[in-house]
Fold this sequence. Notes:
Layout: E1 2-8, E2 14-17, H1 22-31, E3 39-42, H2 48-59, E4 63-67, E5 72-76, E6 83-84, H3 86-89, H4 99-106, E7 108-112, H5 125-133, E8 136-141, E9 144-149, E10 157-159, H6 165-177, E11 181-185, H7 191-202, E12 206-208, E13 214-218, E14 229-230, H8 235-248, E15 252-255, H9 263-272, E16 275-279, E17 284-288, E18 297-299, H10 311-317, E19 323-328, H11 337-344, E20 348-352, E21 355-360, E22 368-370, H12 374-386, E23 389-394, H13 397-402, H14 406-412, E24 416-421
Parallel strand pairs: 2-15, 3-14, 6-7, 10-11, 18-19, 22-23
Antiparallel strand pairs: 1-23, 1-24, 3-5, 4-5, 7-9, 8-9, 11-13, 12-13, 15-17, 16-17, 19-21, 20-21
The protein binds ligand EPZ.
Residues 22-23, 26, 93-94, 120, 122-127, 162, 164-167, 192, 308-309, 331-332, 374-375, 402 line the site of ligand EPZ.
Amino acid sequence: MDALLIEGPSKLSGKVEVSGSKNSALPLLFASILFDGKVTFENIPRLWDIETTLKLLELMGCRTEWEKEVGRVSVFPEVKTKVAPYDQVKKMRAGILALGPLVAKYGEAKVSLPGGCAIGARPVNYHIEALRKLGVRVEVEEGYIHASVKDKLVGTEILFPEVTVTGTENLLYVGVMAEGTTVLQNSACEPEVVALGEFLKSCGANISGLGTPTITIEGGGLKLPSQPVQIPPDRIEAGTWISISLATRSPLEINHCDASKMTSVLAAFRQMGAKIEELNQGTTLKVTPAEIYHPLHIETAPYPGFPTDMQAQILTLLCLAQGRSTVVESIFENRFMHVAELRRLGAQIEVNGNVATVEGPVEFQGAPIMATDLRASACLVLAGLISKGSTRVSRLYHLDRGYQRLDEKLRRLGAKITRVAE
Ligand code: EPZ
């Protein structure tokens, strides 16, 4: 695995481009299983999770082409084996997104239970319970989900006990191929869910309520998309760049954004004292740091609330605020592992259950630290940039899963950062 060596504190300047959204690209790539011909995607980010997704599709018998330089992927969905094996799914929990399309298109699937990850147990019981209600026989044996349609998929009303992003996505795939009407109550409203639904609608699906807690799907099948699928910008990467700009007190211009999908994140940073101008219909964010940052009380929540995937980044920034902040992690049961690493740099954070209390401002001193999960690794890079002296961030695989060469983009902005093999 690689590590990053960062000399801080770093002053940055210039413009940065946000890559395509990982959490939009993954469900859209798995949607190709629903079709009988080639599906082409553009603005696909260069990430390990994309690599893993294409590997999973190839293991099913699909052919894939990935022009990495231009971010174009084509999938020829000639599925032969309806299996998503453990050795791939263990690397990327989103492998669970093979379940819905295989059941919807082929009436059967054998998908490895994703298993937990650093941030939590990550069960998929809501996915399984919902499929059973649509007429799917689902058995969980020896670490695999065995699903088969008894006679046909019949639409019905589903209530998710808790908002689940990939659970909603899996049921979108199945609903468009089921007979009759499927109503998803307490659905996820995340932009990534809406992007998947809008894509399916562009292929003839009859879906209403996308972006609201109640989605109604009239089954009826799909026609092949007539043009390449555009992956929307990554709202979490865009938010990460704002936190980097504010923490290093470097004005930055962030391009290829969609400000309309970032309202709670923009509100939080502005409440801290940041000036953020939305230009070019919100595709460009011009960020101007402040001398003084105000403390906040933040609670993560399903969209449009403050995203859990931005929790580590804003927690790090709040170490610079004048006073006491509190951050409540309401989505995952163990998403404060970055706190122990931040403390090694001098952060004053106490965690009690799912509440982190931050005292600021503090001055970080560089030290060796270790990435634990995808988004936390970005906050550790951010912390290294504002620490005095050298910081070594190890286990960089986590970062490369979700950010397209963040270190290269930072170097182009003037950061003193080098990647070394561990
Ligand atoms: C998606 O994960 C994202 N991943 C996550 O991003 C994101 O943090 C999460 O949504 C929340 O926004 C992708 O889209 C690929 P959930 P997902 O189902 O769908 C519980 C990243 O860094 N739950 O919305 O797996 C679950 O344990 C990743 O890119 C059940 O109990 O999350 C959690 O507490 C990290 N049973 C809560 O619901 C279920 O069957 C929300 O999980 C499903 C979920």
